[in-house]
Specification:
By secondary structure, this protein is mostly helical. The protein has 20 helices and 3 strands. A hairpin with a 4-residue loop joins β1 and β2. The longest helix is centred in the N-terminal third of the chain and has 23 residues.
């Protein structure tokens, strides 16, 4: 038997599972009959006898006003609140993205010498205080490769660079896309060097992959806690939410005030990005789960009064208050990568301020490096727009090919497949052949739900 109740805002939820509404966290209003009847009839709390309809309307209006005030207090997102919460997650000196080094050699050396690892705290342990992340891989059982020779994978990426001019960051994204697919299919000997090259250059998702591998001993790597911390830290600085969540769990094992402060900072980065495990942990704490509530208490966070996440802020306020939304996204973009994607989208369309496609272009690429691959499609369109910069059909087609290997969600106003086919016709023969070879390689290892996995030809 399920006991359904309606909250003040009118949402229906199961009172046996949730103490407050899981959507707005407000208390119940009335109680419904058990599920199973065709109509939910709400109990009447009116006193018996006759009543004046005018007073009833006045009372209802007052209740709505009070509920609105309460909801605003709980979920307020004024610039002051955004600034207050951002100051909590951003250190006094906001770290900037590391400068891009020159292209690494074809066979990179081990990366442990890059910077001396900080010694772990005295009581630091490898134990993480909350659930493990789902693995980066999406195919639980290694699958055979039909068309891709593992020996030829690095040469396929190198052929892209030989066929035409490509910026280094685009070649590194190509290495990451092919490398993570190979690892998913059990080809660690070829996939891992490609991931390391991309991570050394600064691709945040590749850095997260290495950090996760060193943390768990997966992807053919030995467990190495200092190395895991170092790579996760690099990715978290770029706003990659999975790395921030993992790093938060690691720092939580440090009992010092500095460790708890760092754990809180990284958890908020993951939460503001709407990272599923961070959001689930908050939901458990709201429902009274003892372990989750203890974690929030030690992080000095109130699960019932958490601010809006960046995706929810973008979805609910983009149309009604575009100027304020754009200002808030600009603040969040200092530490939360998905805010860069949303901010660039508003800049591209001229929402909430001046249209600036040229300034949006690098934000799309930075978001893509942190795993938000929709940025690849928007960046590809920018490469075909003369108002953004010099038109490059070749760069656009490579961006599209990489984007087709990952699920990208809804791309507003763009048909990625049609854009790819139209752009491919503009290429000379050598570039067209290199791109088709690269796309065939990606198709062999493409993630489920991606365009390449859906369209086999």
């Amino acid at each position: 038997m399920t006991r359904l109740i309606r909250c003040i805002e009118g949402h229906v939820y199961d009172a046996d599972e949730h103490t407050t509404c899981p959507r707005c966290s407000l208390s119940q209003e009335t109680e419904a009959q058990p599920v199973g009847s065709s109509v939910l009839r709400w109990e009447s709390h009116a006193a018996p006898g006759r009543f004046n309809i005018r007073w009833l309307a006045i009372g209802a209006s007052a209740a709505v006003c009070l509920a609105g005030i309460g909801y605003w207090k709980m979920h307020r997102t004024t610039p002051e609140v955004i600034q207050e919460e951002t100051q909590k997650i951003v250190p006094p000196a906001v770290p900037t993205a590391p400068a891009k080094p020159i292209l690494p050699p074809a066979s990179p050396q081990p990366v442990a010498h890059e910077e001396p690892p900080a010694p772990p705290p005295p009581q630091q342990s490898e134990h993480r205080a909350w659930p493990d992340n789902p693995p980066l891989t999406t195919l639980p059982v290694p699958q055979p490769l039909d068309k891709l020779s593992t020996q030829s994978a690095p040469e396929i990426v190198a052929a892209l660079g030989s066929a035409g001019p490509l910026p280094p960051e685009l070649l590194m994204l190509a290495r990451y896309a092919l490398g993570v697919g190979l690892i998913d299919h059990g080809k660690l000997d070829v996939g891992l060097p490609l991931i390391k090259q991309a991570a050394e250059y600064g691709v945040a998702r590749a850095q997260t992959a290495l950090g996760h591998g060193y943390l768990t001993g997966s992807y053919g790597l030995q467990k190495d806690l200092p190395a895991a911390r170092r790579w996760l830290q690099k990715a978290a600085i770029a706003g990659e939410p999975e790395a921030a969540y993992e790093l938060s769990a690691l720092e939580f094992g440090d009992p010092s005030p500095q460790g708890k402060a760092a754990a809180r900072e990284h958890f908020l980065v993951a939460y503001f990005a709407n990272f599923p495990l961070a959001f689930q942990l908050m939901g458990k704490a709201r429902r009274g789960d003892a372990e989750a509530s203890k974690i929030f208490q030690q992080l000095n966070l109130d699960p019932a009064r958490m601010p809006l996440t960046v995706p929810f802020l973008f979805a609910t306020q983009r149309r009604s208050n575009p100027e304020q939304t754009r200002d808030q996204l600009n603040v969040f973009s200092q530490r939360v990568a998905i805010a860069k994607l949303y901010l660039a989208t508003m800049m591209r369309h001229g929402e909430g301020g001046t249209q600036d496609k040229r300034a949006a272009q690098p934000l799309f690429l930075q978001a893509a490096e942190a795993g938000y691959t929709a940025g690849l499609i928007y960046a590809a369109e920018g490469k075909l727009d003369s108002s953004v910069g010099q038109v490059s059909h070749y760069e656009a087609i490579v961006l599209l090919a990489i984007g087709h290997a990952f699920p990208t969600g809804v791309i507003t106003g763009i048909n990625p497949l049609a854009l790819y086919e139209d752009t491919l016709r503009q290429l000379p023969l050598q570039q067209s052949a290199a791109v088709k070879q690269f796309q065939d390689a990606l198709r062999s290892v493409a993630m489920p739900g991606s365009i390449l996995a859906t369209h086999k030809e």
